[in-house]
Amino acid sequence: MKNRASGRGGRGHASGRHSQKPSRGGQQRRSAPQREAHPLEGKALELRIDSLALGGAGVARLPEGVAGLEQGAGMAVFVAGALPGSVVRARISRVHRRHAEAVAVEVLEPSPEAVEPPCPHFGVCGGCPLMHLASERQLQWKERQILDALSRIGRVTPGSVLPAVPAPSATAFRNKMEFAFQGLGEGLRLGLYCASDPGRVFDLASCAIFPAEGAALVDNVRAACRTAGLAAYDRRTGLGLLRHLVLRHSVLEDRFLAQLITAPLPADSAPAQAIRGLGEELLARFPKLVGFVHAERARADGLAQAERTVLALGGHALVEGLEDVRYRVGADAFFQTSTGGALALYSGLRELLDLRPADVVLDLFCGGGGIALFLARSAARVLGLEANPAAVADAEANAQLNGAGNCRFLRADLTGESAVPERLPEGFARADAVVADPPREGLDAGLIQWLNRTRPARLAYVSCNPATLARDAGLLAGAGGGFELSAVRAVDLFPHTAHAECLALFTPRG
Known about the structure:
CATH 2.40.50.140; transferase; Rossmann fold; 8-stranded mixed beta sheet; MeTrfase_TrmA_AS; 8 helices; 23S rRNA (Uracil1939-C5)-methyltransferase; alpha/beta; rRNA (uridine-C5-)-methyltransferase activity; S-adenosyl-L-methionine; 3 domains; CATH 2.40.50.1070; 7-stranded mixed beta sheet; 21% helix
């Protein structure tokens, strides 16, 4: 899954108030009537969890005889925090026409699939909601959800379901973490968001999915910012300074890179000097920290994405490796957040494509060239297309780093009216293999039409969203499509979460 300007942005949510404006007649618009709460909302029910929904919630069925919902027996109830096979007491939070939402408040009978979470913050932290589910069962449920989406949404059945690829490790596997600031003074917090209150940050003591040295860096940054009297940025008021601490780790080098993102501030101000001092202190204290970057973001949102770099101390980038391919990973670069997971994903993709030395490959949504460079050793030529100019520059630099003269990268918007890559360089219009690794929104309709028209011998779709994969598969391999869905393979790129990564191979029909 990608997280970049070409479509895979972060998941922060801007908040604000909408002012009431007078209508043309001079009168105030009336507010929309408030929704009347259902009598069942707020009540606790005993529910047996049967399965796991696409978003990670447990699925139960409303029992018979529930007062106020006598006609709703059998209605699906999505229970946050509940595992298949368990019986829970759940509080109903919302009732819709055809389903209800609830939160598990007590486990009456534990699930046989449950395990002890390896993190002290589990239950408080919202980052790993499935950490209490056995790893092999996480992957099995994700595979089931992918196949269900293909059948239910796309109305297609894959010719083959290849063995799912487990995560190489269930702990310390992430190479990037985004920690948020909140509060001020001695109450300044630096950590992750709470599961029960996504707007509240808790102080992180350790993180089971990131290398242990990361927690020590977080502790030192938090303490230094408290001592300096720096306050967290509040996007509702526009006040405050500190926004995010982004840590990256290279498995190849076993080194770290730190980026502190703040609201804009004068370069000669006391806070700016305090941040420079913090960077110098961290570099002196942590031998594995190769660089410290101070960046700014002015937009009133919750994204951990820099708009401008104002200070860079030490090294500006890490170097990561997948087999013998090297990638330069700067503070703002896109790279899969699990190095071992990326290797498993790219290896599975290479196996699926079965490239020949003379093959020409087209890589759509190529980002920083991760897939293109990995496949370049097995093909004659590779062309990567990407909308983000910074990512294209990273891809070109990575090609130079690897001496990959058979790789080219071009800036191209693959959405909207620009979705059809008509003006491809000579030799790429009829590529032997096409890789599509789109954002969560999936492929644009125009791009799907182009694929159905050109029908490459092999089309590999890398998906981070089973629902949009299923929709696109229906257009590619359903009635009127030019392909067959030959094979699918689930890849557990994000353990302990509901995110399901999938590889799908399409081959021309007939």
